[in-house]
Write a structure and sequence with these properties.
single chain, about 375 residues, alpha/beta, Alkaline Phosphatase, subunit A, ten-stranded mixed β-sheet, two-stranded antiparallel ribbon, 13 helices, 14 strands, about 35% helix, about 20% strand, globular, binds zinc ion
Length: about 375
């Protein structure tokens, strides 16, 4: 009898051990927060570890990978082709938004999930019609067609936006007032500031359009816009405890790189890292949220080199105690860029793979894609 009892206890122990392992590996992420640092390669990320006064949120990830960013026709991508790779899972030509090489429209993740009533939000420190956010709702042949992109937004099922770009909605060549059209589609619209959750809690859709074109740089009065909007979107999209997808773009890290302006780049990177912190804080307490942080490409060919100095005798030397941000181009570069993941399924993002795999992995893990999509 004693032997049987021991055997039974042992069997139960083994079964429960198997079961808990199964739950860990097979848990489905219900919410996905994809944060894209435009132009944010490994050197840009590294600046947070030297120049941020508090501990960088990038340091909180345990699962890392690298993506190849080339577009369909060029080794070096632009944000439109790279945004389309994330949003639609295809390689296309530089400048294309949500269309393939042959100009046909390709379904994006927002379109795939909205047919299942899953909510979505887009946040950007550029105009919301700029290449990266546009890839998640628009289908145009050229990224510069921003009025067409805004028209596509009105037709889309996105539930929450925050960024700039008012002029593409209400100062248009065709005379349409898209803000009025959005209001008719049950959008709560605010063109002054990010509000509190209490003010939008009962709204079905929300649009914060806070600049005529792009949002100002972090160092020129943007304040905590990106982190605040991220936190608010999480509250808004997560209010029903249902699945959601959101994309948060730190747009201007790229512009600091294009300008070869280290101060601009670092202040934007730190601001983006603050937004990452909001996503991780939520994911840690929620337990069902997958956070992915990556970049569309690197910009500037940035290096954290030593500063070249001269001794009193005039001899040149490299000061290893003084980092100098040096750039090798005013454009984008072809280096692989890092992917950081946290939450259920995070281990799937380890390894080296194409940027289109981000789209595939999200849909596979969440099981958001239906048969034949
Ligand atoms: Zn760029």
């Amino acid at each position: 009898m004693k032997f049987i009892r021991i055997a039974l206890v042992a069997t139960l122990f083994i079964l429960s051990a198997c079961k808990s392992e199964e739950t860990i590996t097979q848990k489905r992420p219900q919410k996905v927060i994809l944060l894209i640092g435009d132009g944010t390669g490994l050197a840009q990320v590294s600046t947070a570890f030297y120049f941020k006064e508090t501990s960088p949120n990038y340091g909180r990830f345990k699962h890392l990978g690298l993506i190849k960013t080339s577009s369909s026709q060029q080794d070096i991508t632009d944000s439109a082709a790279a945004g389309t790779a994330f949003a639609c899972g295809i390689k296309t030509y530089n400048g294309a938004i949500g269309v393939a090489d042959d100009s046909t429209k390709v379904k994006n993740i927002v379109e795939i999930i909205s047919s299942k009533n899953i909510k979505s939000g887009l946040i950007s420190t550029s105009s919301i019609t700029h290449a990266t956010p546009a890839s998640f709702y628009a289908h145009v042949l050229r990224r510069g067609y921003e009025e067409d992109i805004a028209s596509d937004f009105v037709e889309s099922d996105v539930d929450f936006i925050a960024g700039g770009g008012i002029n593409f909605f209400n100062k248009r060549e065709d005379g349409r007032d898209l803000l009025a059209e959005l209001a008719q589609k049950n959008f709560e619209i605010d063109t002054t500031a990010i509000g509190d959750f209490s003010t939008i809690q009962s709204s079905s859709k929300v649009a914060y359009l806070l600049a005529e074109n792009h949002m100002p740089p972090a160092a020129e009065g943007r304040g905590g816009f990106l982190a605040n909007a991220t936190e608010l979107a999480i509250q808004f999209l997560g209010k029903d405890e249902s699945d959601f997808f959101m994309m948060v773009e730190g747009s201007q890290v790229d512009w600091g790189g294009h300008a070869n302006n280290g101060d601009y780049l670092v202040s934007e990177l730190i601001d983006f890292d603050d937004a990452i912190g909001k996503a991780l804080d939520y994911a840690e307490q929620d337990g069902n949220t997958l956070v992915i942080v990556t970049a569309d490409h690197e910009t500037g060919g940035l290096t954290l080199s030593s500063t070249l100095k001269k001794t009193e005798e005039g001899r040149e030397y490299s000061d290893y105690d003084d980092i100098d941000l040096t750039f090798s181009t005013s454009g984008h570069s072809a280096t692989l860029v890092p992917v950081f993941a946290y939450g259920p399924g995070a281990e799937e993002f380890a390894g080296i793979y194409e940027n289109t795999e981000i789209f595939e992995k999200i849909l596979k893990l969440t099981e958001w894609r239906g048969e034949g999509e």
